[in-house]
Amino acid sequence: MTKQTLPPSNPPLLSIRNLSIALPSGGDRPYAVQDISYDIRAGEILCIVGESGSGKSMSANAIMGLLPHYLRPEGGQILLGGRDLLTLDEDVLRGMRGREMAMIFQEPLSALNPLLTVGEQIAEVMRVHNAYPGEAREKRVLELLELVGLPDPAAIRHAWPFRLSGGQRQRVMIAMALALEPKLLIADEPTTALDVTTQAQILALIARIQRDKGMGVMFVTHDFGVVAEIADRVAVMEKGILVEQGLAEQILNRPQHPYTRRLIGAVPRHRASPSTRATPAGGPVLQVENLHKTYAVGGGLFRKGRVVHAVNDVSFTVKRGETLGIVGESGSGKSTIGKCLLKLLDIDGGQMIFDGQDIAPMSEAQFRPKRRNIQMIFQDPFASLNPRQTVGRILCDGPLASGVSRQQAEKRARELLQLVELDPSAFDRYPGEFSGGQRQRVGIARALAMEPRLIVADESVSALDVSVQAQVLKLLHDVQQRLQLALIFITHDLRVAAQICDHLLVMHRGQVVEQGPPAQIFDDPQDAYTRQLIAAMPGRGWDPAAAIHHSESLNDAALAPHAS
Predict the structure, then answer these.
(1) Boundaries of each ABC transporter domain copy (predicted)?
(2) Torsion, Cα of 414, 416, 417, 418 (10° steps)
(3) Angstrom distances, CA of residue 499 to CA of 35, 154, 323, 472
(4) b/e 355-387 (16+ beta carbons within 10 angstroms → b)
(5) Whole-model pTM above 0.70?
(6) In the Cβ-directed half-sphere of 301, how many Cα atoms lie within 13 Å?
(7) How many angstroms separate the first and last alpha carbons of the chain?
(8) Which of 9, 100, 356, 491 has its CA 20 to 30 A from that of 306?
């Protein structure tokens, strides 16, 4: 639910005035950030929203003095506590980082040092600033771990980052940022890759700490559900320009700028409506019966490990032209199912009947002729594409390996680029030359190059901007309907699942706890875990469709006198 009130009026904690950051290349867009101005007050959360490349993170890095060496502010001021940060040297800024301003980064595993325990990393913040000497430092580490809600602080302080879950690592990052109780907290996409319940916990934690400490918070995000959940005020950025700002209630429910309305219009609805799509009439493409997959964890030379049931007695059917959604938290077994279907993992029991044959017991040599019929779209399109190969080579390699002639493979690759709405010149370009959404289109084209009957899409839109996400979802739906493919869509985003799927499986700790059409799952969930997932969706009390309708009605009313 959006906030309706602001904290009492007080002087700005942070003031950005006419900030411009020039790009070294110039060209069609000479500025990364151009002439932007906004304030953040103590006790307030300002959400900065926009697509990738809009300048959100660039302005956050400018505040912290963390811009790349080739980017320098060309004009304007960044005033914190009356001092212009742009005029201070690096030694002074280093002393302010942590004490007066701190930052939570998007990917905690990359931001944390893998060679230090989490307790050592939190203590390092205090050591660098000569704060909390001696035993007080160790006590402060435990206080911070308890403050951010980590279990058993005395034990977890000795843990290595890779031993923690994504949500736990993000809590460690928050503890580090709060170590010296800064006045300003900058959170740069801190919940993007987290599942819905972990995301809800992190949002509640940031809001609680901000309220208790009276900090000013700058929250960078592209997720309007997050904005509706925590924002006091919102600033919307497009291509380096601040196009609209105001109270969260006004921006979310009565957006004025066309770009803001376009972003809100691309947000998947948080409730499902009865599907208008025709019921898939094709026969079963895949039947999974009593699938089991276990992992042995822990253990050692003199210690017995334990068995984790990653997938426990799971059964489902996917028909031709149908989209089956598999939803749940991280660790629920969603991605493990996808890897089992492609035989990237060996299963411990059950059947996977594809085209009338059980592929589970097949050897790699037996399965290889069928592999072309089951393809995968991966979560990270950059990591899954070879950066040293052109897009044309990436699209042609699979067909060439299966015996297709080079002429046919290249012809098919160019047709696929047109199908996924990429420019023909993409054939000779490299993955690094494309945006995240464009790379995901290449990933879709690569999966289609083998002319499969079944595609497994594993979190294929989770890291994309809302507008790019909408484009990729529409593309997937259009391609699937045109080619009558069976699609298994794995996601932790229930809004996305409601938009694209015909049938949903809700998974919890390796088991299917509920299944049915999206409308039934959302409107009448039967299992307590399903109800918990739906309740954890950020901004669930905000309806983007109603906001756009209301905004358009206001615009029509304003234009009516001029029309007459």
Answers:
(1) 14-264, 286-534
(2) 90
(3) 38, 44, 11, 12
(4) eeeebbebeeeebeebbbebbbbbbbbbebbee
(5) yes
(6) 0
(7) 38
(8) 491
- What is residue 125's three-state secondary structure? helix
CA-based torsion, 90, 92, 95, 99: positive or negative: negative
Query: Predicted confidence band at 362 (pLDDT cuts at 50, 70, 90)?
Result: very high
Please tell me the distance from the alpha carbon of residue 564 to that of residue 560, in angstroms, as a whole number. 6
Residue 547 has pLDDT above 80, yes or no: no
Helix (H) or strand (E) holding 520: helix 518-523
- Cβ distance 490 to 457 under 8 Å? yes
CATH of 12-89+216-265 among 3.40.50.300, 3.40.1580.10, 3.40.710.10, 3.40.50.720: 3.40.50.300
- Cβ neighbors of 74 (< 8 A, separation 6 or more) are 20, 21, 22, 31
Q: Residue written as tokens 């995000």?
A: 221
User: Under a CB-based contact definition with an 8 Å cutoff, are residues 233 and 247 in contact?
Assistant: yes
- In this predicted structure, the answer to whether residue 40 has a pLDDT above a threshold of 90 is yes
Which residues lie below 8 Å from residue 390, measured CB to CB, with a gap of 6+?
Answer: 427, 428, 429, 430
Tens-digit pLDDT profile for residues 55-92:
888 899 999 999 888 888 888 999 998 899 999 999 99
Residues 59 and 67 sit within 8 Å (Cβ to Cβ): no
> Between β-strands 454-458 and 349-354, what pairing exists: parallel, antiparallel or unpaired?
unpaired
Q: Is CATH 3.40.50.300 correct for 319-339+364-537?
A: yes
Angle at 370 between CA 367 and CA 373, to 5 degrees: 145
Rounded to whole angstroms, the Cα distance separating 148 from 164 reads: 14
Distance CA 539, CA 221 (A): 14
Report how far apart, in Å, the C-alpha atoms of 560 and of each of 235, 258, 556, 563 are: 29, 18, 6, 5
Helix pair angle (135-147, 166-178), 10° resolution: 130
Q: How far apart are CA 204 and CA 200, in angstroms?
A: 6
Of 239, 231, 237, 180, residue with least CA distance to 206 = 231
Contact yes or no for 242/37 (Cβ under 8 A) = yes
Question: Residue 289: in which H helix or E strand, if any?
Answer: strand 284-297
Distances (CA, A) of 116 to 1, 66, 102, 152: 39, 23, 20, 19
Token pair of 34 as six digits: 């151009």
pLDDT, tens digit (0-9, with 9 covering 90-100), for 494-523: 888 888 899 999 999 899 999 999 989 988
**CB-CB contact of 162 with 108 (8 Å):** no
